[in-house]
Amino acid sequence: MFSSIRVKYSLILxxxxxxxxxxxxxxxxxxxxxxRYKIKRNNYSVxxxxxxxxxxxxxxxxxxxxxxxxIEGNNIDFLRSCRGNSQLLLKPKNEIEISQILKYCYxxxxxxxxxxxxxGLVGGSVPVFDEIIISLQRLNEIYSVDEITGIITCGSGxxxxxxxxxxxxxxxxxxxxxxxxxxxxxxxxxxxxAGGLRVIRYGSLHGSILGIETVLASGNILDLMSNxxxxxxxxxLKHLFIGCEGTLGIITKVAVLCPAISSSINVAFIALPSFExxxxxxxxxxxxxxxxxxxxxxxxxxxxxxxVETFNLNPPISGYPFYMLIETxxxxxxxxxxxxxxxxxxxxxxxxxxxxxxxxxPGKISEIWKIRELVPVSLIEDGYCFKYDISLPLxxxxxxxxxxxxxxxxxxxxxxxxxxxxxxxxxxxxxxxGFSQDIYRKIEPFVFEYTSKLKGSVSAEHGIxxxxxxxxxxxxxxxxxxxxxNIKTMLDPKNILNPxxxxxQE
Amino acid sequence: MFSSIRVKYSLILxxxxxxxxxxxxxxxxxxxxxxRYKIKRNNYSVxxxxxxxxxxxxxxxxxxxxxxxxIEGNNIDFLRSCRGNSQLLLKPKNEIEISQILKYCYxxxxxxxxxxxxxGLVGGSVPVFDEIIISLQRLNEIYSVDEITGIITCGSGxxxxxxxxxxxxxxxxxxxxxxxxxxxxxxxxxxxxAGGLRVIRYGSLHGSILGIETVLASGNILDLMSNxxxxxxxxxLKHLFIGCEGTLGIITKVAVLCPAISSSINVAFIALPSFExxxxxxxxxxxxxxxxxxxxxxxxxxxxxxxVETFNLNPPISGYPFYMLIETxxxxxxxxxxxxxxxxxxxxxxxxxxxxxxxxxPGKISEIWKIRELVPVSLIEDGYCFKYDISLPLxxxxxxxxxxxxxxxxxxxxxxxxxxxxxxxxxxxxxxxGFSQDIYRKIEPFVFEYTSKLKGSVSAEHGIxxxxxxxxxxxxxxxxxxxxxNIKTMLDPKNILNPxxxxxQE
Lengths: 506, 506
Fold this sequence. Notes:
2 copies of one chain form a homodimer.
Chain A: H1 15-23, H2 33-36, H3 49-59, E1 64-65, H4 68-75, E2 89-90, H5 95-108, E3 112-115, E4 132-135, E5 142-146, E6 151-155, H6 160-169, H7 186-191, H8 199-202, H9 205-208, E7 209-215, E8 221-224, H10 238-241, E9 250-257, E10 264-272, H11 275-289, E11 293-300, H12 301-310, E12 322-330, H13 333-349, E13 355-359, H14 362-373, H15 375-380, E14 384-391, H16 399-407, E15 414-420, E16 425-432, H17 437-443, H18 446-453, H19 478-491
Parallel strand pairs in A: 2-4, 3-4
Antiparallel strand pairs in A: 1-2, 5-6, 6-9, 7-8, 7-9, 10-12, 10-13, 11-12, 11-15, 14-16, 15-16
Helix pairs in contact in A: 11-13
C-alpha cells in the first residue's frame, strides 16, 4: 500500500518567492499600527538633519536610507498586521558600527528597531512608530566552519538557507529549519528563539547556539562567543538574548553547533482517521523511529486543502481528516527504511494509518514538504489570517480548533490547525477576506484564555513581539513579568531598544 | 578480534558507597576554608537563639540542626578542599518553608548556603564561613511522569538515580547521567548545570529542563514551570538559574524532558596508539554511529591504571597509552550492532584502534563503565587531587596533560587526563599525597592561563563555585562579569545567597 511517491506538481513555487512577493503588495492598504491598535508613542526624540549627518559620517552615505519608498518594505511585517512609520533605515556593516549607532541613539534618546529578514509573525521586527530601523543584512559573513566539532561561526545577518548550504558542504546539518529560510536571518532566528521543523530532533536554539556577540543599548559590545557545549563559567548570559526579540541587545555574531549530516533521509506522508490516531502514531513514531525521527508534523483537512488548492499541488493522497508528515534522518538507509516499514505496518494494521506514501528520493521529499510548508502562505494568499502559535498538552491539542470553528461559525472564515505535534506546538489559524475588528474581538482574548486554562503557552515559537504583549500574563506570573521588567530596565534604562515589544505596556 | 567481554571483576564497589565513605573521613584533617584560602568574612549578622526559635517554629524542631557533629559532613565538600564552619543546618520540606526562611534571613541579613547532595567539585555547595546551610533533601517528591511527552516534574531534592529509575519504569531515559548519581540531587544538578556522560547525545540541562521553580533572596517564589519544549513568552528566565550555583535563587522544582528509553545499548572499550588516533576515532564515531552515539569518553594510561589498580579491576585490555569508551543507544539492536561493527572494523583496518572489547550485555556494560567512573574516586582515594575541568579545542585537547606532566616532574604527583572528548571536555588531574601550597602554586594560575590562551573554558561542567572565582576573568570579559554583578545585585541586593561563590571578590 505504501509506495514511492509518483505525483507531479503542475506548479511548484518556492516559499522564498512567495515570501518576497508579499512584500511588494499594496502597502497603503495596511493600516498604520498606531491607528489599528491605538497605542501612544513614548517620549523619544525625533530624528533631525544633524542625526542623519552623524550616521552618514559613521557608516557611509549609501547605507543611510531616508527615502520613504525604499523604507516602506521595512516598515510592514510579513503578515501585513503591522505598519510602522520609520523615516530612517541604517545598514551598518559590523558590531563596531552598531555600537557607534547605539551609543549615539542612547545619548540622543532615539528609539531603534533591529531588523533581520523581517519574517516574524508577531510584529516584532517592524517599528511601531518612527523608530530607526537597524538592518543586520550586511553582517552576513561566515567566519569559520570546524568540521571536527561541527561549529559554524557567522555574522547575524547570514540568511538561514545559506548557512544550511555551507553546513552541507562540510558534511554538517544546520540544526534549524523553517519555512522562511530563504529570507530569514540567523540573528533574527536567535533573537526570537525560532523553533521550526526540527526541534524534535535537534532541540531549541538555546542548545544549538554555543555563543553570541551582542551590542547593548549603551553601545557596549558584549562578547559571549564560545566554541564549547560545556562552559560553566558564571551565569549563562547568552540565554537572556536568545529570545529577547531585540529588546535587550542586538545580536551581531553567533556560534552554532551542527550535527553530522545524515546520509539517509526518508519521509512518509500519511492519512489518519482521527486525532486520537494522530496521538497514537506520534507515540509509536518515538518508539519505532526513536533516534532517527527528525520531524513529526500534523496537517488537518482544511490546512491541507488550502495548501493544495492555492498552489495547484497534486498530492499523493487526499480526502482524509488528518495528515502527518514524518521524516527520519539517519546514517544508514537500509536500517532507516527497515525501521520505517515496521512503524508504518504497525500503524496500518492497527487502523491508525489509513493510507500514505513513503519516499527517500530528494525531489519527492521536497514535493511532500511543500504541502506542509505552503500551508501558512496559502492562508494569507487571498486575504488576511489571524495566526496563533500555541503550545498545548497533547491530550487536548486539537480540541481548540474544533472549539474555535464552532465559535466562528457565523463568520466567513476558515479555521484550521497544523504544526509541530512532536513539540506540542499547534498553529491555529483563522483565515478571512481581510482584517476585521469583529473577527479580531471574537477570537481574542478568548484564544489566549482558553490556552491559559489548559496551562498552555500563548506563544510557542513566534514570540510576543508587538501583537501579543497584552497576552503575556496568560502564560507568565506577575513575579516573572516583574523580573523581566527589571532586567529590561537594567540593560536598557531609556527603553530605546525595540520599544512597545515583549513587555506589556504599564 | 572484538568479542563480548569475558573479564570478572574481583571487587566492584559502587561509586555510591565510595562517595558516602568519603564524608566519614577525619574532618579535622581538613583545614578551614578561611585559613587555607585566606579570605575575609562579609559583614553579615551572626545567628542567635531568637533566630533558632524562629526557624524551629517555622519548619519544626527536628529539621533545625545545631549540633556541630551532625553538621560537620555538610560543612566539608566531597574533595575535602573546603571546610566551612556553619552552626545551623535547616531542612525545609517545600518552597513555602524556604520562602519563609529566606524572607527572614533577608530581613536579618543572614547569609545562606543552599545544599543538594554536596557532590560539587569546586567548593560551591558548602559554606565558606558560618552561612546557614539549607538542605534541599526533603524536597524529594516526584510529582508526575507523562509517558506521552516524556516530561517528569519533581522536587529539587530528588536523587538523580531515583529519577533515572522512575523514568525507566515509564519507558523513558533520564537525559542526565554522572558518576555521583546515587547521591547528587536534581536541584544541585540544575543549579550547577551539571554535564556528565550523555551531553553528547541529549544536550545540556538548558535544553532538557523545561521549567523550574525557584525561591529568590527576597523569599518570593518565582514559578517558571513549563511542560513545553517551545515556550517563547518573554525572556527565557529559567536559564539564569540553571548554572547560577545557588547565588541567584534556590531551585525547588523542575520539569525535565526525557527521551524514550533505548531498547538497545552497546558499549565498546578500545585501545588506541596516540591522541591523533583518538581524534580520528571520534570523528568516525560521529559519522558511523551518528544518531545512536550516546557517550564518547577518553581515558589516558595513568587514569586507567589508577582506576584499575585502586579497585582491583580486571580490565578486558591493558598496556596501551589511550583508551576510549564508546556507547550507543538505539531502538534496534541488530541495526546498532551492524553500525558498531562497521565503525570498529574501519578503525582496526586503519590502525587507529589497536584492541578492544564490545558488548551489549548489561552486566558487562556496567563493568566497563566502572573503569571510567571509578577514575575520579581512585585519584582521591589515598590523598588529595587537584582537579581541573576544562573545555579545549579538540586539536589541542591533550597537549595540556603533557605540558603539565613536564611542569610537575619534580613533584611526587600523578598527572593524568580523561573525560568527555565528545564534548571537548577534559578532566585534567594532579593527584598527590596531600594538599600542598607548593604544588597548588605550581599548577595555578598556570593551568588557567594556558587554557585561556587556547580560548578554552576554565570550567566546562563543574562550575566556578568557591575555588575558581578568581579565574573567572580567564574565560569571561569584563563586560560579561559586570553584567553578572548587576544581575546578582538586582536579584540579591544584600548578597545573602551563597556568598563568596561564582563572582570574583571585588
